[in-house]
Amino acid sequence: MRYYTTVSALAVLFLFPLVWSGWASLEEPGNYLEMARFGEGLDTYAANSVLVSAMTVTGTLVVSALGGYAFARFDFPGKNLLFLVTLAILMVPYATILIPLYVLLGYLGLQNSLTGLSLVFVMFQLPFALYMMRNAFEAVPRELEEAALVDGCGTFRVFLRILLPAVRPGLVTVGLFAFLASWNDFFAPLILLNDGSSFTLPVAVVNMTQRTFGAVDYGMLQAGVMVTAVPCLILFVVLQRHYVRGFMSGALRG
Amino acid sequence: MTLLLTRPGDRRTSAAPPAWWRGRSAQGWLYAAPAAAVVGALFLAPLVLVAWMSLNRWPLLGPAALNAPGNYLKISDNPLFLDSVLFTLKYTAITTVLLSGLALGLALLVQERRPGVGFFRTAFFLPGAVGFAAAALLFYGMLNNDFGPVDPILQALGITDEPVKWTGTPDMALFSTIALVLWRFAGFNMLILLTGLQAIPVEVYEAARSDGANRWQIFTKITLPLLRPTIALMLILSVTGSLLAFDQFFIFTNGGPDNSTVSMVMVIYRDAFFRFDLGGAAALSVVLLVALVALNALQMRVLRRPE
């Protein structure tokens, strides 16, 4: 009984802020309407966030699935070096290469661009995603594809038809991590985007605390918090198993 | 990086490759090419560029000019940065100790299968699914004296009798920020520890119990030593994450009061985008980068030392 009292009290402490924020945002129905009209409008920010997340998830899945296939099934010169350099992304603090990335994206004509931001997110996801996908492909028995290869089936067809369906759980995990990271990140869009109409949700909601017209509207702010957080909460609860598997596989630094 | 040591399914045969295997080297490169392009263009190139930028006077707008080693020399005239180093170290030390302790406690509470334990695990982790920026704004409202619920609750319980200055003094601002970080990250670290706890075979515990070991002995003599690599990983993540703190101070305390909660990354951001001095910001980035890579390497050596 003492056990359940302790864990329940802790659960209340952990859940209370979320419940309060939801309640505070709904206390006045006007909060969500106010928020929808804030700045460039909620539709703009939400569309930007959805677009960035969609591009990041797609990009990460394509690059890491092809790369994972290469690392699991092929031998080529520079293979180990490329893998090590990719993992080295984890060693280098994220915040320290965003300023050169800002300059570099300017050279590429991708400054203040949602595509540029998504490419940066794909890069940051790559160590986890590539590691995860390589292991997923390695876990598939070779017998599955060898018959097809001996029959003269091309390696790309084998990849699409036989291997991709077999590594689907790995793809879900990689996609989930890529979504959560790109949807929630604040620092990269703060630096890489400089025009209100291209802001993603976290940057837009933080802007609600800038007191341009007197006091901060706290009810509206909590509505913004909810709009940003609820999709992640739902997705996490639905895909929890896949999230935890990302941890179990040992690739903890995603 | 022990990630590299285990390679499940790596079954290499010494026999000559069959016919269909030949020419696969080029194909392998083709499949790896997108990853190589991303890593080259968006990781290696900015690494080189940040080093080059740090050697130049590099305004936000306008041409750059070589001024090495000016950007590095002027770091010592940047009192805000020097203060931020001390503050960030203090924050890192306190956060890491409290966060690890809390995460270990939570992990031990929910490690065994019991009715309802899945719910509690989810409850502890759920804040981790909320973006950090959103979490900081949530606390910004929750700890507001006029709007937030915390002051009325504390007063109703008789714990305080007037509104608390949650971000009004340097110490309270640090305390409140740490509360935010604990709420947001305890479940994440709990999950890391749980993976380690579940890798300990049940037989080890059973053997200890049949030898008459009590719970404390089992914890100190079996659980902690076997959990060492996992704890090491958690500490590395916590130290690195805390040294790079930005969102919590930028959003929640805005560096205040009186610049008392300005982290190192905040100074880099300010130098780049408010002082328009990208060269100076790049020099600070290089210093931080070298320090963190060295620290990571050191931590790994010390903490991952085999028993």
TrEMBL record, chain A:
<feature type="transmembrane region" description="Helical">
    <location>
        <begin position="218"/>
        <end position="239"/>
    </location>
</feature>
<dbReference type="GO" id="GO:0005886">
    <property type="term" value="C:plasma membrane"/>
</dbReference>
<dbReference type="InterPro" id="IPR000515">
    <property type="entry name" value="MetI-like"/>
</dbReference>
<dbReference type="GO" id="GO:0055085">
    <property type="term" value="P:transmembrane transport"/>
</dbReference>
<keyword id="KW-1003">Cell membrane</keyword>
<keyword id="KW-0813">Transport</keyword>
<feature type="transmembrane region" description="Helical">
    <location>
        <begin position="45"/>
        <end position="69"/>
    </location>
</feature>
<feature type="transmembrane region" description="Helical">
    <location>
        <begin position="158"/>
        <end position="180"/>
    </location>
</feature>
<feature type="transmembrane region" description="Helical">
    <location>
        <begin position="117"/>
        <end position="137"/>
    </location>
</feature>
<protein>
    <submittedName>
        <fullName>Multiple sugar transport system permease protein</fullName>
    </submittedName>
</protein>
<keyword id="KW-0812">Transmembrane</keyword>
<keyword id="KW-0762">Sugar transport</keyword>
<feature type="domain" description="ABC transmembrane type-1">
    <location>
        <begin position="46"/>
        <end position="239"/>
    </location>
</feature>
<dbReference type="InterPro" id="IPR035906">
    <property type="entry name" value="MetI-like_sf"/>
</dbReference>
<feature type="transmembrane region" description="Helical">
    <location>
        <begin position="81"/>
        <end position="105"/>
    </location>
</feature>
<keyword id="KW-0472">Membrane</keyword>
<keyword id="KW-1133">Transmembrane helix</keyword>
<comment type="similarity">
    <text>Belongs to the binding-protein-dependent transport system permease family.</text>
</comment>
<dbReference type="Pfam" id="PF00528">
    <property type="entry name" value="BPD_transp_1"/>
</dbReference>
UniProtKB/TrEMBL annotation, chain B:
<dbReference type="GO" id="GO:0055085">
    <property type="term" value="P:transmembrane transport"/>
</dbReference>
<keyword id="KW-0813">Transport</keyword>
<dbReference type="InterPro" id="IPR050809">
    <property type="entry name" value="UgpAE/MalFG_permease"/>
</dbReference>
<keyword id="KW-1133">Transmembrane helix</keyword>
<feature type="transmembrane region" description="Helical">
    <location>
        <begin position="91"/>
        <end position="110"/>
    </location>
</feature>
<dbReference type="InterPro" id="IPR035906">
    <property type="entry name" value="MetI-like_sf"/>
</dbReference>
<feature type="transmembrane region" description="Helical">
    <location>
        <begin position="272"/>
        <end position="298"/>
    </location>
</feature>
<protein>
    <submittedName>
        <fullName>Multiple sugar transport system permease protein</fullName>
    </submittedName>
</protein>
<dbReference type="Pfam" id="PF00528">
    <property type="entry name" value="BPD_transp_1"/>
</dbReference>
<feature type="transmembrane region" description="Helical">
    <location>
        <begin position="231"/>
        <end position="252"/>
    </location>
</feature>
<keyword id="KW-0762">Sugar transport</keyword>
<feature type="domain" description="ABC transmembrane type-1">
    <location>
        <begin position="85"/>
        <end position="299"/>
    </location>
</feature>
<feature type="transmembrane region" description="Helical">
    <location>
        <begin position="172"/>
        <end position="194"/>
    </location>
</feature>
<keyword id="KW-1003">Cell membrane</keyword>
<feature type="transmembrane region" description="Helical">
    <location>
        <begin position="29"/>
        <end position="53"/>
    </location>
</feature>
<comment type="similarity">
    <text>Belongs to the binding-protein-dependent transport system permease family.</text>
</comment>
<feature type="transmembrane region" description="Helical">
    <location>
        <begin position="122"/>
        <end position="143"/>
    </location>
</feature>
<dbReference type="InterPro" id="IPR000515">
    <property type="entry name" value="MetI-like"/>
</dbReference>
<keyword id="KW-0472">Membrane</keyword>
<dbReference type="GO" id="GO:0005886">
    <property type="term" value="C:plasma membrane"/>
</dbReference>
<keyword id="KW-0812">Transmembrane</keyword>
